[in-house]
Amino acid sequence: MTTTGTTLVIGATGTTGSRTTAQLTAAGHRVKAGSRRALPVAGAEPVAFDWYEPATHAAALDGVDRVYLVPPVGDYDPATVMLPFLRRARAAGVHRAVLLSSSAIPAGGPAVGAVHQALPGLFEQWAVLRPSWFMQNFTGAHAHADSIRREGVIRTATGDGRVAFVDADDIAAVAVHALTDDTAPGTDLVLTGPETLSHDDIAATVTKVTGRPVVHHQLTYEQMRDHLTAHVPAEFAAMLAGLDRAIAQGSEDRVTDTVQRLTGRPARTFRALLESLRRHGS
């Protein structure tokens, strides 16, 4: 790996951004940690960054040659704000960009798929991370985790569909490689955990490891869409419910070796994550 250059991590206080920042700084890389309120991040230079406030962009990009891109949350058309920023970043001297997308969204697909499609035309050095669904959705601040804590319930329209849930720490480890290796991947990388699980399996594992009863309530597409509309814009809720429906049809029932191939270690299992959190009192 090269240790030269400065990386702007956008969303540096979020699920993957915080972990990517921590792993970069631990390895001795210079990092500007971008967040709306420029919150302090250990080992990094905090900087204000808001996708919807272009006045924050110049200072965030100053002295930066690579960038980790976390799209604005809940925006059905993030290309509207992301592409002008990326053109500005290129003009400011950024030569490598790593975009966080999703295994469910191909290049040219909805939402961040348009940014994925445009990225190779903007930067010679690039990668798109397409992780499966996060394990941390069941342990952090996600609606699933909140529902588990409050009600002991997970609600989805995934039926018996299986997903190779991936640990956000593994996503960050791949991001660090994509940002700092001498040669950028120049492709999209589908990231998964080591096994596929249904949401019934997730509920059973949480119950077994934590001792707290958790059940999976299977909803229809329409029920899930309406449930999500209470929390996010209707168009985005319909897209998310549609992703659940695709899972029910087998869209996420696959395992890749990307984490092991790029990091040299196996991807963590969901049970191992829960047991680690239990040991550390989380």
Automatic annotation (TrEMBL):
<feature type="domain" description="NAD(P)-binding">
    <location>
        <begin position="11"/>
        <end position="105"/>
    </location>
</feature>
<keyword id="KW-0614">Plasmid</keyword>
<dbReference type="InterPro" id="IPR051604">
    <property type="entry name" value="Ergot_Alk_Oxidoreductase"/>
</dbReference>
<protein>
    <submittedName>
        <fullName>NmrA family protein</fullName>
    </submittedName>
</protein>
<dbReference type="InterPro" id="IPR016040">
    <property type="entry name" value="NAD(P)-bd_dom"/>
</dbReference>
<dbReference type="InterPro" id="IPR008030">
    <property type="entry name" value="NmrA-like"/>
</dbReference>
<dbReference type="Pfam" id="PF05368">
    <property type="entry name" value="NmrA"/>
</dbReference>
<dbReference type="Pfam" id="PF13460">
    <property type="entry name" value="NAD_binding_10"/>
</dbReference>
<dbReference type="InterPro" id="IPR036291">
    <property type="entry name" value="NAD(P)-bd_dom_sf"/>
</dbReference>
<feature type="domain" description="NmrA-like">
    <location>
        <begin position="128"/>
        <end position="241"/>
    </location>
</feature>
